[in-house]
Specification:
By secondary structure, the chain is an alpha/beta fold. Helix content is about 35%, strand content about 25%. The chain has one domain: Ribokinase (UDP-N-acetylmuramoyl-L-alanine:D-glutamate ligase). It is built from ten helices and 13 strands. It is globular.
């Protein structure tokens, strides 16, 4: 069975700052902030939430269907379509738009793995044009960060099509007010956020984690190196982290985790087991540079 993955296909330009942002930014001078960072390390990778999640799910043995847009201007869009073909990932829901560039993320990481990101959405702003319809081979979906209209409309379309889905607002969460977020939760089957996003979600909806979890099948709050909290029916279970062989690059770790989540949910696993697999896959990703450059030994993870 397939999983529709709504989100972005983007190129990540990843820069490495060898110092600490906290040592360069003066909190009492933020109103006149003017800083420059020397970044000796630089690389460009295939990225975007939909692409990264699809990569993880495919590597685990799933059948991802990314729903996204790329630009037809320049070679970037064609390059990404070739990338998907090389990975054996269907591009039937990927549209190439003339007059636009493929989304671009400029990500700077310091020595503590803190990140500052600038994002140009490009073709992603037209992602809402592609519609979700019911189909017999699709069992699950996910709403990951995308254009605002796309996120709103795709959530409604998933619900109308009877396809259970994960609401994972990520860095797109600030675009929505409490009413919008409450509607997403009403439509979704599961919600996933990191700890910072979780606090914002609760603040804007007026619901704590326990209440959010009662309105869906489950809520997961990821905690980075501390694992994650799985909330079901108001009860919280801490799922411990998996120690990585090395901490090299956090870019795409959350998306790797989400691909594992979809893999488990599609197979009917309980939420804690899904989260545990996500922690394991995230530990593999963080040991490699870039969001789509890690390998998965399915037998070692017990999913062969």
């Amino acid at each position: 069975m397939a999983a529709i993955i709504c989100g972005s296909l983007a190129f990540d330009t990843i820069m490495t700052f060898e110092g600490r942002f906290a040592e360069q930014i003066m909190p009492d001078q933020l109103h006149i902030l003017n800083v420059s960072f020397l970044v000796p390390g630089l690389r460009r990778d295939f990225g975007g939430c939909a692409g990264n999640i699809a990569y993880s799910l495919k590597a685990l043995g799933g059948d991802p269907l990314p729903m996204a847009t790329v630009g037809a201007d320049g070679a970037d869009g064609a390059d990404y379509l070739k990338r998907l073909a090389d990975l054996g990932i269907s591009a039937e829901y990927v549209r190439a738009l003339p007059g636009a560039y493929t989304a671009q993320a400029m990500i700077m990481t310091d020595r503590d793995n803190n990140q500052i990101t600038a994002f140009h959405p490009g073709a992603m702003m037209q992602a809402h044009v592609t519609r979700i319809e019911a189909r017999s081979d699709v069992k699950i979906g996910i709403i990951s960060p995308d254009g605002r209209d796309a996120m709103l409309q795709h959530a409604e379309q998933f619900h109308a099509a009877g396809i259970p889905f994960v609401f994972d607002p990520g860095q797109g969460l600030p675009m929505f007010d409490g009413k919008d977020l409450a509607r997403f939760i009403e439509l979704a089957s599961w919600v996933t956020v990191n700890d910072y996003e979780g606090k914002m979600l609760c603040e804007r909806t007026g619901w704590d984690e326990a209440e959010v979890s009662r309105r869906v099948r489950g809520l997961v709050v990821t905690l980075g190196g501390d694992g994650c909290d799985v909330w079901v029916d108001g009860q919280c279970t801490r799922v411990p982290p998996v120690k990585a062989e090395a901490v090299v690059d956090p870019t795409g770790c959350g998306d790797a985790w989400r691909g594992a989540l979809l893999f488990g949910l599609e197979r009917g696993w309980d939420l804690a087991r899904c989260a545990a697999l996500g922690n394991a896959v995230g530990s593999l990703k963080i040991a490699q540079r870039g969001p789509q450059n890690y390998a998965i030994d399915r037998a070692a993870l017990g999913v062969a």
